[in-house]
Design a protein that fits this description.
This is Aldehyde dehydrogenase. It is a single chain. This protein has 479 residues and is of the alpha/beta class. The protein is 39% helix and 22% strand. The chain has 2 domains: 272 residues, Aldehyde Dehydrogenase, Chain A, domain 1 (3-Layer(aba) Sandwich); 191 residues, Aldehyde Dehydrogenase, Chain A, domain 2, CATH 3.40.309. It is built from 15 helices and 23 strands. The chain is globular. The termini are far apart.
Length: 479
């Protein structure tokens, strides 16, 4: 069992009152770690450390900040296997996925090590011969970064790396289910030579930590990934100090399969999207819409593919799907299945909790396919965050687009077609921040990630990702 400490002001420390909480393996219920439960005073100390460290870090040449990020990137890759195994133990995803996440997390560090050197200002032609106008980009200040449990490495680097590249300092609050990966990444950042106080990591109860971060005017920006409900709360509370805020919130991705699609590729695509991380991703397929003429053929192949998936502990060989994160997640998923069944859906495979043998110690749900799904069902309206694939039909392109857009969410959508013109038309009309055309896993460090509507505001990744941490200053010189 790992007994960890928080990282505040360059020191590894316990909480002020010595309280801790346990981190458990969702596949077995075994305690795998123990971390401090931060007090309000601990969080205030972290904010003070970030505030004190800000002027020196912001004043460094961009190349110096870039050098630290490059060193962090190399250390993450050097420790990829250890980080992946730790991630699987506390989060549950299969080891192959965990290795992929660590590599993906490292890419954000590499990308923003490069972008640190490309924060450009510009000059503006003046309207008077006695003036000169300059526009500067400068770091916003202390950033509060709040990260989720489903990607405990990548969501840390996707926020921290651009903040550091811009010249900001950070107070990081990782999810209480998965703090060990964040702390391990912080140790590597310390080894990379980051000055004391530039990044601080506090672990513990979300409301207590969040309240301090919201109330302290020295925190100038909040970046959050999580539920839409919590995002709305943060927006309301951040208004008191007019804090800048970036939100990556819930999704309910439609996956459109047209009659000219390669059905074998579409089946592989849906499986890759829907069942990655046991369906616990904000951009996974939540509504599978298939054109009527190929519906039966697609469903037959899809059910066969889902039946072949292996469920188990993420460290076991050949496992495709791990556990859900906790008991509440199991109850939510099974509740949506029961609601759909009561309203006329047909369960083609799965639909139940796995309890026999080793499954009985964890939070496992069999991968599930639902047919005859309609818009009255919770699974068609609410984010599932589990291994449940609801399938429905559409008649033509207009019907597909209308059904896909009929959602309060707008994070990601998918289109499978072999028609170039159709792909362009549909992609342009979908009300989503990310569209994967014949691509079930579109996320990359160099492209902007974010949603429309109630799926959030702002972008992470790409050149846009650093903008969230920069202020614009206009300077007028009289000469």
């Amino acid at each position: 069992m790992r007994k960890e400490k928080m990282w505040v002001a360059g020191s590894w420390c316990a909480s002020e009152d010595g309280r801790t909480f346990a981190v458990t393996d969702p596949a077995t219920g075994e305690v795998v770690g123990e971390v401090p439960d931060a007090t309000e005073a601990d969080v205030r100390r972290a904010v003070e450390a970030a505030h004190q460290a800000f002027p020196e870090w912001a004043g460094l040449p961009a190349r110096k900040r870039s050098d630290v990020l490059y060193a962090w990137y190399r250390r993450i890759l050097d420790h990829q296997e250890d980080l992946a195994r730790l991630l699987t133990r506390e989060q549950g995803k299969p080891l192959a996925e965990a290795r992929g996440e660590i590599a993906y997390a490292a890419q954000f560090v590499l990308w923003y090590a490069e972008e640190a050197n490309r924060v450009y200002g510009y000059t503006v032609p003046a309207s008077s011969p006695t003036k000169r106008i300059q526009v500067l980009r400068q770091p916003v200040g202390v950033v509060a970064a709040i990260t989720p449990w489903n990607f405990p490495a990548a969501m840390v680097t996707r926020k921290v790396a651009p903040a550091l590249a811009a010249g900001c300092t950070v107070v990081l609050k990782p999810a209480e289910q998965t703090p060990l990966t964040a702390l391990a990444l912080a140790r590597l950042l310390e080894e990379a030579g980051l000055p004391a106080g530039v990044v601080n990591v506090v672990t513990g109860e979300p409301k207590r930590i969040g309240r301090v971060l919201l109330d302290d005017p020295r925190v100038r920006k909040i970046t959050f990934t999580g539920s839409t409900e919590v995002g709305k709360y943060l927006m309301r509370e951040a208004a008191a100090h007019v804090k800048r805020i970036s939100l990556e919130l819930g999704g309910h991705a439609p996956f459109l399969i047209f009659d000219d699609a390669d059905l074998d590729a579409a089946v592989k695509g849906v499986v890759a999207s829907k069942f990655r991380n046991a369906g616990q991703t904000c951009i996974c397929a939540n509504r599978i819409l298939v054109q009527r003429s190929v519906y039966d053929a697609f469903v037959a192949r899809f059910v066969d593919a889902v039946r072949a998936l292996k469920v188990g502990h993420g460290l076991e060989d050949g496992v495709d799907i791990g556990p859900l994160v906790d008991e509440a997640a199991v109850e939510k998923v099974l509740g949506q299945v029961a609601d759909a069944r009561a309203k006329g859906a047909e369960v083609l495979v799965g639909g139940y909790r796995l309890t026999e043998g080793a499954y009985g110690r964890g939070h496992f749900v069999a991968p599930t396919v639902l047919a005859n799904v309609n818009e009255t069902m919770a699974v068609w309206q609410e984010e599932t965050f589990g291994p449940v694939a609801p399938v429905a039909v559409f008649d033509d392109e207009a019907d597909a687009i209308a059904k896909a857009n009929r959602s309060r969410y707008g994070l990601a959508a998918y289109v499978y077609t072999q028609g170039l013109s159709r792909a362009m038309r549909v992609a342009e009309q979908l009300e989503y921040g990310i569209v994967g055309v014949n691509d079930p896993v579109p996320s990359v460090a160099q492209a902007p990630f974010g949603g429309w509507k109630e799926s959030g505001m702002g972008r992470e990744g790409g050149r846009e990702g650093i903008d969230a941490f920069l202020e614009t200053k206009y300077v007028s010189f009289g000469i």
